[in-house]
Specification:
heterodimer; A: 106 residues; mainly alpha; 2 domains; 0% strand; flat; B: 410 residues; alpha/beta; Spore Coat Polysaccharide Biosynthesis Protein SpsA, Chain A; 8-stranded mixed sheet; two-stranded antiparallel ribbon; 15 helices
Chain lengths: 106, 410
């Protein structure tokens, strides 16, 4: 079988996949635009609903949270380091134990 | 993702600076190399192909003004083809054939075939040295043909175009915006490509091509397809690109001028811009598919314009989607507006000075242009990328009815 023989079938398959992808993507874009517009209009008029807010990195609370995140991350890193050291110690102890067990008993 | 976008835009900026700096150095340092060989005594035979679809009385004006050109009457003629218009275009073509006997051939396709096939069929009726493709809604300056033809004094010159102006710059804000768009797209940006004689798209509104070159490219035009679906649009960019790939030079002669009526309705404008964008996107795919064949044949400037410049549009589209996530008021940022207005003021000054007939009444229209650019990038790029399996005549879906014999606007 030559490539030319199956080319129309390949073309049809690719075209079908392309069309499905195109329709899904275009409707997703449309839905995104409608949702964005609806959200903007809704929160422009609503005084009771809590509106989502984008905090800037320079915001006081954002800075506090950033420093807390960093200190927690440091603690996590320290603990990971300790764990690694302890695991090394356990490994060494087990190696030592294994060597001792190989010694002849009197 | 943001880093990626900034990297691509940064690359584009640095390459652009290098490109323009190099072009300017070339222009100043080697004026002969970047200059054009013209011979105004050159008078080859010219066949003017005018494909037409739903143009109404405008098509008659186009034929009349092109026939009024300062060129020996025996050396050029019009082959006008109606692609089964839904309006009265065919009647106007017949009237033109009757009013200018022996100089206009009016024909009608047996079915709607699209612009590319219409052009090819019409070209089979001619035996001229040069084929000149024109748009059916343009009017032409008297020296247009001579200016175009004179550029073929250089045997390496394959395709020559002209510039197009707007006939209705101040009809409404939309036409004002388009006056800027046309100036940027068909005058300013072409200038730098002209200096290396590697214009990547000679517009189909006014495109002269050597006959043998057209015949060489013809089979490729006929077999253009997107996974089996025939492509009927963007033949101007396609022809130009293949001329460059065959080692020919391409040029836009700013002295060859014509004028078109810019769309004054949003639907028409949207359709026009969508087709332009789709044509560019198709070309980008073709370029990447055959990138290696460009090297060594096409001028580096042409390769840049075909590969990097359109990529920026795609990157900008990604940016448009992502930017609101970082700053919802990104589009209304004062700096954006200030840059837009400042650019508009400079462009308005240039247009008013060089093209007084296209002076824009409202300089603030450029702010609207900035807004349109966002919409354009946001939706049209995506739409064009996802509708490659669809081809039509584009913005000529309008239907106007004015029967021959009624007063014509000039």
């Amino acid at each position: 079988m030559h490539l030319e023989d199956i080319k129309p079938a390949i073309n049809r398959s690719v075209l079908m996949l392309y069309r499905v992808f195109a329709i899904v993507t275009l409707y997703a874009v449309l839905a995104g635009v409608v949702m964005f517009a609806f959200g903007s209009a809704f929160y422009a008029g609503s005084k009771t609903w809590v509106a989502p807010v984008i905090l800037s990195q320079g915001d006081k609370e954002a800075l506090d949270l950033t420093s807390k995140t960093l200190s927690t991350q440091n603690t996590v890193d320290d603990l990971k380091l300790d764990m690694a050291k302890l695991e090394d110690t356990i490994g060494e102890a087990q190696l030592h134990k294994a060597k001792l067990e190989t010694l002849p008993r009197h | 993702m943001l880093t990626f976008i900034l990297c691509v835009l940064g690359l584009r900026l640095s390459l652009s600076i290098a490109k323009y700096a190099w072009s300017i150095v070339m222009r100043i340092g080697h004026p002969k190399l970047s200059g054009l060989v013209q011979d105004y005594a050159l008078e080859p035979t010219v066949s003017i192909l005018l494909p037409c679809f739903n143009e109404g009385p405008d098509v008659y004006n186009s034929i009349r003004t092109i026939l009024e050109c300062d060129y020996p009457a025996g050396k050029f003629g019009v082959i006008a083809t109606d692609d089964r218009s839904r309006d009265d275009s065919w009647e106007w073509l017949q009237k033109a054939a009757a009013d200018f006997p022996g100089r206009v051939i009016a024909r009608q396709n047996s079915r709607n075939m699209g612009k590319s096939r219409t052009l090819i069929d019409a070209s089979h009726l001619s035996t001229s040295d040069i084929i000149l493709v024109i748009d059916s809604d343009c009017i032409f300056a008297k020296d247009t043909i001579r200016e175009l033809v004179s550029c073929f004094a250089d045997p390496k010159m394959g395709v020559v175009g002209g510039t197009v102006g707007v006939r209705n710059p101040n009809t409404n804000s939309l036409t004002q915006v388009q006056t800027y768009v046309y100036f940027l797209a068909f005058d300013l940006w072409k200038t730098f490509e002209n200096w290396t004689k590697s214009v990547t798209c000679v517009g189909g509104y006014l495109m002269a091509i050597r006959r043998h070159l057209f015949e060489q490219i013809e089979p490729k035009i006929l077999t253009r397809n997107w996974f089996g679906v025939e492509v009927m649009e963007g033949e101007d960019r396609y022809i130009t690109h293949h001329a460059l790939l065959l080692g020919y030079d391409t040029y836009v002669n700013p002295k060859a001028r014509c004028w078109t009526t810019a769309p004054d309705k949003y639907a028409q404008f949207f359709s026009q811009q969508y087709h332009w964008r789709k044509s560019g996107a198709r070309d980008l795919c073709m370029t990447y598919k055959s990138l290696w064949s460009h090297l060594g044949i096409m001028h580096p400037n042409g390769i840049y314009c075909s590969t990097v410049a359109p990529l920026t549009v795609l990157t900008f589209t990604l940016g448009i989607f992502i930017a609101p996530l970082f700053d919802p008021l990104f589009f209304l940022h004062p700096i954006t507006l200030v840059i837009s207005l400042a650019t508009g003021a400079v462009l308005r000054m240039i247009i008013s000075r060089h093209f007084p007939d296209q002076k824009i009444a409202n300089p603030l229209a450029f702010a609207f242009f900035g807004f349109w650019w966002i919409i354009n990038s946001f939706y049209l790029t995506v739409l064009s990328l996802l509708t490659f399996d669809f081809s039509d005549w584009g913005s000529r879906a309008k239907k106007r009815v004015r029967r021959p014999g009624q007063e014509l606007c000039t």
